[in-house]
Write a structure and sequence with these properties.
Blueprint (H helix, E strand, L loop, with lengths): L1 H5 L4 H49 L2 E2 L7 E2 L3 H8 L2 H34 L3 H16 L1 H12 L7 H8 L16 H11 L4 H11 L3 H10 L4 H12 L1 H16 L3 H7 L12 H11 L3 H26 L5
Antiparallel strand pairs: 1-2
Length: 321
Amino acid sequence: MSDIISTGISPKRTFWSLFTKSRKKGVRDHHDIAYAFVAPYLIMFTVFIVIPVLAAIYLSFTYFDTVRAPEFIGFENYINILTNDAEFMQYVVPNTLKYAIIVGPGGYILSFLLAWMLAQLAPKLRTILALIIYSPSLTAGITMSVLWKVIFAGDNTGYLNSVLLKIGLIVEPIIWLQSKEFLMTIMIVVTLWSSMGVGFLAMLAGILNVNQDLYEAGYIDGIKNKFQEMIYITIPTIRPQMLFGAVMAIVGTFGSSGIGVALSGSNPTPQYAGQLIVNHIEYFGFNKYEMGYAAALSVILLLVVYAFSRFAYRLFGSKDE
């Protein structure tokens, strides 16, 4: 103490500086612990997301056949996609847009409406129905081959053909899964049937956790029915869950690849009727071994998904997030 006074430094200031240093040290220690917990995720994210994306961007500017080393060719792959790939511009782009516009918003709206309706039911009944609605998203791959291919089989044994033949609506079996007129419609129906996944559960959880006092205050302020309650209270309150559901719907829709190929049994699908951009990527990457061209297609898909995700963020995101 005498040394402190002799140097002319205030004891209060000295103790404060010591406290500040110890506090900063403690904060730094907490930061180190936090980084240690986050490190496994950062490592996995870097290895399985960041590096593959950067590799795809690099390969998109090369010719790479998986045998020889990648050869840099600049923007040639992108130019070929936009000018020389007739199937991409004539079939893949229209099919993907049609599929995305119907399945994306359709599945998203259906998820919200089902979640909202289930929230009005008793807990036990709600749990049972939620499990029934959610289960197709878990078993979509199995039921694809076991259920839907049997229903739409192109002979007399197919359930749909059998019913239509018995009631006289058709005179001969229809080859549903090889038909240019029906394949896309069947893909959309099957996808909507299995689209009640984690986005649906997130919205259901959000609705169930809305503060009930808000509804009471809303009715005092003039809300008259359930529809107004949903528009003015429920949706604004669960915006984070709505944003999560929208992003999951966008990624799931544009990332769909197995449906058309699994139903029709071929890639490309018959007459390109159900060919989506992911199918096109797989065809060039794993059938023709043009990895550079497939990488360019995947970069285009990445940009499209990012653009739609930003649009969803503008709709449901907040300035504070």
